[in-house]
TrEMBL record, chain A:
Gene3D superfamilies: MetI-like (1.10.3720.10)
SUPFAM superfamilies: MetI-like
InterPro entries given in the database record: CysW_permease, MetI-like, MetI-like_sf, Sulph_transpt2
Alphabetized Pfam families for the sequence: BPD_transp_1
Residues annotated as domain ABC transmembrane type-1: 61-268
Lineage, highest ranks first: Bacteria, Pseudomonadati, Pseudomonadota, Alphaproteobacteria, Caulobacterales
Keywords of this entry: Membrane, Sulfate transport, Transmembrane, Transmembrane helix, Transport
General function of this protein: Part of the ABC transporter complex CysAWTP (TC 3.A.1.6.1) involved in sulfate/thiosulfate import. Probably responsible for the translocation of the substrate across the membrane.
Entry protein name: Sulfate ABC transporter permease subunit CysW
Coarse class of the protein's main subcellular location: membrane
TrEMBL record, chain B:
Gene that specifies this protein: cysA
Organism: Asticcacaulis endophyticus
Biological process per Gene Ontology, one example term: quaternary ammonium group transport
Keywords assigned by UniProt, alphabetized: ATP-binding, Nucleotide-binding, Sulfate transport, Translocase, Transport
ABC transporter domain ranges (all copies): 3-237
Keyword presence, Translocase: yes
Single Gene Ontology MF annotation: ATP binding
Organism phylogeny: Bacteria, Pseudomonadati, Pseudomonadota, Alphaproteobacteria, Caulobacterales
One term under GO cellular component: ATP-binding cassette (ABC) transporter complex
Name the UniProt record assigns to this protein: Sulfate/thiosulfate import ATP-binding protein CysA
């Protein structure tokens, strides 16, 4: 099948469409991004540096990294296991499993936080028991982690499943008939084939894990310097009318988003064939 | 209603797709553009349809400059290789499309469009499938819908790009005959592109043979067969055997025997000569090329033999089932004598 | 985890078929236990399925069960009282109407952006293409504070409208703007691949049949984009209904006026009204799923008509 190659816009209609698209992207996407940097440096570099080097900011950065460092590997391992059983075997209830896998994408972040309060909060199912044993889950690190895990759960699996379905099982079956054993098949055949898609999924998962706001905000309890991740730190500062510090912190996350976009785009250009055909997040 | 193509040249960034191509399609003619892939035949068809523009040359239809018109204005019915049916429209909607998109002053009334669609459905023998979607049709049915859609705009010329390319062999033969009948009924000048020599010879009134963007020969199927203009045309029209012989006049001398030769140009001395599988005579004791029977296979109405000579050359010959050849067995020794050879200078 | 060799796998199958395989076994050969694992050629079915089911049960299903069971503490009455409370109704209405209109705007804007990105060649196209994904990558809180400051009466954009008496930030218009921001990539990324793979011959066919470029776009290309447009619309809509971070700073959060449903959940939690929070959540989910069902139904209708 032949597809139409893009060409320079010539007709007035084409130019009008192009102009509208550029205007819209500038207004809706670029302007808010530029505004973050503008507001962050509004009073100069010194206040900016002061804001991001302040102890609460540093501890927010550390906590954000820690949460992502725990949540992302968990979801990566899960994503590989889920993609393996879904794409390599036939079993009853697969459709249902896929729907459950997609659920976190359709949940409001607030609901993704709420459910953990219902389980582990003071009046939650396990609240009294946890209290009696002096275990803290919500308003502490474990709560931040599980909320982040729930929100970012499908990213890796969703990236791997279409690709592995597309690649089929021929190579792995060939390896088995040649005598390869369990992990050999995975590490020598499957992993090299999916490594870029895995990288891609992990990248998106990490970006979302570090930037998650709604779910984390509910389970964190907003304890400054203790359970505030970067996005929550922004909220606290903004609500205190400390605009410069809020935007300075926001600029760190905006930078992170831009780095994510660049890496993502590079992966897409370089390894288009080795990434899944249809991507929607 | 004749179409004249003159000195058309078209090159893409690095190669010449068409090089100084000229031919004429007479009114009501069924013309085939035949050539291997990359010979420029599809490019030529797209130029005629207005989907591409040539670098130089002219295309006129009854004296009117066709290159000055865009694809929309040429009123050419084009049947694409992939059929390119609109999959969200029913068969009827597909066929009516070309009438429905006309500006309101030229558009036939709803009733007229409906009648036209019905008559075309009848022509393609799909009266009962008008409400179906293309995805619910077989390949052959889709092809017929694509043809009806092209015919609906009462095209001045019908262009078909590898019309049978995507079909399996059985359906292909059926549709071929049917297409010829449609052409004879509608009388519309038709040009079709194919890489299948059998298809071209079977269907077309005349065949234009293309090679590397240039025309090798234009002629009626029999002319091409009997008087091929070049070794390319000869080779392209079917399998043949090649041996060397000393040519003088209309005769080719071999080691111990001669054969009548069709010589293009004035060629004498040692030459490569070609002969068709059925222009060969077999005998038990010569004269001819001595060979051993490698295989005996039925090829339709004929028997096809492969023979290997002592120097390793393999000959392919064809004979009637009831000829002497049918008595042969594998590994029998037999002599092959060409009864008519062709000699080309190039 | 071990794999069985092809030979032993074959043996096991013979045995499970009820036939004795003793005679063909070489001496000293111990048949492997015929577990059902041997039915799979590839290893790891039970391990991977086990991990998947356990993980999904603990992380997704258990919490959702807790959510579904919670609202009924005060009986069905309690639930109905909560979700028919005027403040809750207003919040649900606000969330769903702003999400709907934002998705509608994104449907058109996203279609145009996708069209421009696939049809035209222009300088900087690759950067524009990449930057469309920014709303996916930018943390919602960052978008929230930035939009809020842009559209506040003293912000870059807000100050243009303020003299006309139009307030954007801290009104439902502000919510709508934030939802337009986060929803755009959903439509673009749904439509773009379909448009990029649109068969050029189909378009040329329309052209040779006499259609103008406009007629071709509207009658031939657009209908084949319908499923992708609906998908993009429903993804943008679903995301917008539950959106919190990018909305909360610009919304103003005035009860009955600019208070979105997710915020109501937060407020009820702060009042330790777990059942109330869960009730609002269930109401949101029920409405969202109804809408997803409707769009799925439309998709099925379209595909029956041969459009899929």
């Amino acid at each position: 099948m032949k597809v139409k190659a893009p060409e320079a816009p010539k007709s007035p209609a084409a130019i009008a469409l192009l102009a509208f698209a550029l205007f819209w992207i500038a207004l809706v996407i670029v302007l808010p991004l530029v505004n973050v940097l503008f507001e962050a440096f509004r009073t100069g570099v010194a206040p900016y540096l002061a804001a991001i080097l302040e102890p609460d900011a540093i501890s927010a950065i550390k906590l954000t990294l820690l949460v992502a460092a725990i949540a992302v590997p968990l979801n990566a391992v899960f994503g590989i296991a889920a993609a393996w059983c879904i794409t390599r075997f036939e079993f009853r209830g697969k459709g249902l499993l896929l729907s459950v896998l997609d659920l976190p994408f359709t949940l409001s972040p607030v609901i993704s936080g709420l459910v953990w309060i219902l389980l582990f909060g003071a009046h939650g199912w396990f609240g009294a028991w946890l209290d009696a044993h002096n275990i803290r889950i919500v308003f502490a690190l474990p709560g931040l982690v599980i909320a982040t895990v729930l929100v970012t759960l499908p990213f890796v699996a969703r990236e791997l499943i279409p690709l592995m379905l597309d690649q089929g099982t021929d190579e792995e079956i060939a390896a088995v008939t040649l005598g390869a054993r369990g992990w050999d098949v995975f590490f020598r055949i499957t992993l090299p084939n999916i490594k870029w898609a895995l990288t891609y999924g992990v990248l998106l998962c990490t970006a979302r894990a570090m930037g998650e706001f709604g779910a984390v905000s509910i389970v964190s309890g907003h304890i400054r310097g203790l359970t505030n991740t970067l996005p929550l730190h922004i909220e606290v500062l903004y609500n205190e009318y400390n605009t410069v510090a809020a935007f300075a912190t926001a600029s760190i996350l905006a930078g992170l988003a831009i780095v994510t976009l660049i890496l993502k785009t590079l992966l897409e250009w370089r390894f288009a064939d080795e990434l899944a055909a249809h991507r929607r997040h | 209603m004749s179409l004249t193509v003159q000195n058309i040249t078209k090159s893409f960034s690095d190669f010449a797709a068409l090089d100084n191509v000229s031919f004429e399609a007479h009114s009501g003619e069924f013309l085939a553009l035949l050539g291997p892939s990359g010979s420029g035949k599809t490019t030529l068809l797209r130029l005629l349809a207005g989907l591409d523009q040539p670098d130089s040359g002219s295309v006129t239809f009854e004296g009117e400059d066709y290159l000055a018109l865009n694809a929309r204005e040429r009123r050419i019915g084009m049947v694409f290789q992939s059929y390119a049916l609109f999959r969200h429209m029913t068969v009827e909607q597909n066929i009516a499309f070309g009438l429905n998109v006309r500006p309101s002053k030229d558009r036939p009334s709803k009733a007229e469009i409906k009648a036209k669609v019905q008559s075309l459905l009848k022509l393609i023998q799909l009266e009962d499938l008008g409400k179906r979607f293309p995805s619910q049709l077989s390949g052959g049915q889709r092809q017929r819908v694509a043809l009806a859609r092209a015919l609906a705009i009462s095209p001045r010329i019908l262009l078909l790009d590898e019309p049978f390319g995507a079909l399996d062999a059985l359906v292909r033969k059926d549709l071929r005959r049917w297409l010829r009948r449609i052409h004879d009924e509608t009388g519309v000048t038709t040009i079709f592109v194919t890489h299948d020599q059998e298809e071209a010879l079977d269907l077309a009134d005349r065949v234009v043979v293309l090679k590397d963007g240039q025309i090798e020969q234009i002629g009626k199927p029999l002319e091409l067969y009997r008087k091929p203009a070049s070794s390319f045309v000869f080779d392209f029209l079917g399998t043949n055997n090649q041996v060397t012989a000393t040519v003088s006049g209309a005769e080719a001398k071999f080691d111990g025997f001669t054969a009548p030769a069709v010589v293009s140009g004035e060629l004498t001395g040692p030459q490569v000569v070609r002969f068709r599988p059925f222009d060969a005579h077999l005998s038990k004791d010569g004269p001819g090329f001595k060979g051993k029977v490698l295989s005996i296979l039925p090829a339709g109405a004929n028997l096809r033999l492969e023979l290997q000579s002592e120097d390793g050359t393999v000959f392919e010959t064809q004979h009637a089932h009831d000829s002497d050849a049918s008595d042969l067995a594998l590994n029998d020794t037999v002599y092959v004598k060409p009864i008519k050879v062709y000699v080309f200078g190039n | 985890m071990t794999t069985d060799s092809p030979i032993s796998a074959g043996d096991a199958r013979l045995e499970t078929n009820g036939r004795s395989a003793h005679q063909i076994k070489p001496e000293g050969f111990k048949p492997p236990k015929a577990t059902h694992r041997t039915q799979h050629v590839l290893p790891g079915f039970h391990a991977s399925l086990g991990i998947t089911l356990t993980y999904l049960s603990l992380i997704v299903l258990l919490p959702l069960v807790a959510l579904v069971l919670r609202p009924w503490e005060a009986g069905l009455d309690g639930f109905i009282r909560t979700v028919t409370d005027e403040r809750v109704l207003k919040a649900l209405q606000l969330s769903f109407t702003t999400a709907f209109w934002a998705a509608v705007v994104n449907l058109f804007a996203g279609l145009i952006v996708a069209w421009v990105l696939t049809r035209y060649e222009f300088p900087g196209k690759k950067i524009i293409d990449a930057i469309v994904d920014l709303p996916f990558a930018l943390p919602t809180a960052v978008a929230g504070v930035s939009l809020s400051s842009l559209y506040a009466p003293n912000g870059w954009v807000g100050s243009l409208f303020d003299p006309m008496g139009i307030k954007i930030a801290y009104t439902p218009i502000g919510i709508f703007i934030a939802l337009v921001f986060i929803g755009l990539p959903f439509v673009v990324r749904s439509v773009q691949p379909v448009l990029a793979e649109f068969d050029a011959e189909v378009e040329e066919a329309a052209l040779t049949l006499g259609a103008t470029p406009m007629q071709t776009a509207i009658r031939v290309i657009l209908p084949s984009l319908a499923p992708a447009l609906i998908t993009g619309f429903s993804l943008a809509f679903a995301r917008a209904v539950g959106e919190y971070g990018s909305v909360i700073f610009i919304a103003g959060n005035m009860p009955y006026i600019s208070e979105i449903s997710p915020l109501l959940i937060v407020i009820k939690l702060e009042e330790f009204d777990y059942a109330g929070a869960a009730s609002v959540a269930i109401a949101m989910l029920a409405l969202s799923f109804t809408i997803l069902l409707v769009t799925n139904f439309v998709q099925v209708l379209l595909s029956r008509r041969g459009r899929a």
